[in-house]
Please model this.
Amino acid sequence: MCLFVTQNRCNLPNTQCMNQNQIIGINLKRYRENLGITQDLLANYLRINREEVSYYENGKRTVPTNLLSAAAKLFGIDEYDLYELDESAHEVKVALAFRADTLNAEDLHHIADFRKIVLNYLGMKKATANESSHS
Model:
């Protein structure tokens, strides 16, 4: 359930009164922290400044779709997952182990590309399994 607040009045529990920017911001921060990267490193990866990442994470600004796509690719999730408020839906679909203490933006691009390949492979594997079960 997703409700948008008008005039800052809402009689529902806090999480149901969040606007889309706030939900996306919470998710960006959650996935970034789960990946173990700083706002600075995410900003470099997205080719924006750290302050913009902060604004997005705090729900103060709308995240452009190209940045949502890039972030989702890095996090190994579908873009739609960034719009989900349900915490149970926040499982990273592709888990990778790496040392985060020396990562740079270029490393993140390589990680994101690899995660995208793995997600595509898993999607194709699932599709062919479904196809095989229907024959």
